[in-house]
Amino acid sequence: MVSSGIVPVIDFEPFLSGTPAEKEATARELLKAAKEVGFLMLSNVDAVMDKATVAEAFKKTQQFFDLPMEVKERLEWECAESNRGYVAEGRERVTQETDPEAIAKLRQQAPDFKETMEIGKDYREGPDDSPYENRWPDAEFPDFKTFMNEFFEKNHQLHLEIMRALALAMGIGETFFDDKVAQRSHNLRLLNYPPIEKAKILNGGNRAGSHSDYGSVTLLWQDMVGGLEVQDKDGHFVPARPVADTVVVNVGDLLQRWSNDVLKSTIHRVVLPADGNPDEMTPRRNSIAFFSNPSLRTVISALPGTGEPKYEPVETEAYLVKRLSETCARSPRLDARAAESPC
């Protein structure tokens, strides 16, 4: 099997359009990777997400981050309950740390060198949907909203096929997760890692610090600059170099919990290139992450056939809000306009 470091590359076409036997064999490959590594790369996903759409998503991501700062700040992320809007460089510090003071110290001493744009489902279907609205640059970038909403839905469909593959291989029924993720309570995150002086690496900064993801599965679309590193079973970080025309898939904390630790949510980070002159600038890097989550009211408890439960049941929304509140600083301008904000 082809791999990038410890991350296997799996052809997903047989699951999407193959015979029942080919479908089951591919599902077993996914399950093996999810158990042993927690990461994999999928190729040949064009039946759900074509290459032209991915290329256009990267183009629009760059165009968004090239907007004037005053435009982006008008769209700023305000609170974990919303989890929508623009997050300026240095405001978030992803980490496994849970102590608020320790996270604040990390954010000051070794910030994540990135800016992001967070996008959720853009419509409400019922009272359990999030009441918060996306924040769009409609005047400055009029076709951004329409494209990103379509891209969001295609990512949902691809994530659903991955969840079906895992369910099939686990023997719980291919459509087990369908009604439990139907709300589309996901987070589409556009990321821009601006060029910075390589000397800043010496101060302990990373593009994104060591962390695991919070939800069920993450789909990561990367450019070819690279920087993703995955922690192996011995605690060493191993580069997962980009492979053209693939999407990186990793298990999140909620899916590990849901699977009663059968599936593995693996620590990873995004590093800066350490070679070359410290006075040189690093190259710009863009990536797009789709953090898929169960529906907000889905109760996460041990899946059938996974043994005695190791965790107490938890509702999706409560878990996600807690984790997001720990890692991203509240807007400093929020209190000044509290009457205008739903947060």
Automatic annotation (TrEMBL):
Iron among keywords: yes
Domain spans labelled Fe2OG dioxygenase: 184-294
Molecular function as annotated in GO: dioxygenase activity; metal ion binding
Record keywords: Dioxygenase, Iron, Metal-binding, Oxidoreductase
Top-level taxon of the source organism: Eukaryota
Pfam families named among the record's database cross-references: 2OG-FeII_Oxy, DIOX_N
Transport found in the keyword field: no
Family named by the database record: Belongs to the iron/ascorbate-dependent oxidoreductase family.
Protein name in UniProt: Thymine dioxygenase
Species of origin: Rhodotorula diobovata
